[in-house]
Write a structure and sequence with these properties.
The chain has four helices and no strands. The protein has a domain of about 45 residues. It is mainly alpha-helical and about 80 residues long. Helices cover about 55% and strands about 0% of the residues. The N and C termini lie far apart (about 70 Å).
Length: about 80
């Protein structure tokens, strides 16, 4: 019994350490796409819609890859 308590305590400390190590989310959210790096192909309407929904529902969005605009059938 005494050994299992120490094992559980040790595991909980390890899991806490794993959960706290990593990139800060504030750094990722402060960067916004600009037209030079994305060539203006990202879908600004979708980004604004998803960000607004997240704000209204208390969620946080971290964009790893911004959504791209769909190309029209005529290639434009």
């Amino acid at each position: 019994m005494h050994r299992s308590v120490w094992a559980i305590a040790g595991l909980s400390l390890c899991l806490c350490a794993c959960a706290t190590s990593g990139p800060r989310h504030s750094e990722a959210t402060t960067q916004s796409p600009n037209e030079d790096t994305l060539d203006g192909d990202y879908d600004q309407v979708k980004v604004a819609t998803v960000n607004r929904w997240a704000l209204d529902h208390g969620a946080t969005v971290i964009w790893n890859h911004y959504p791209q605009r769909r190309k029209s059938a005529d290639g434009g």
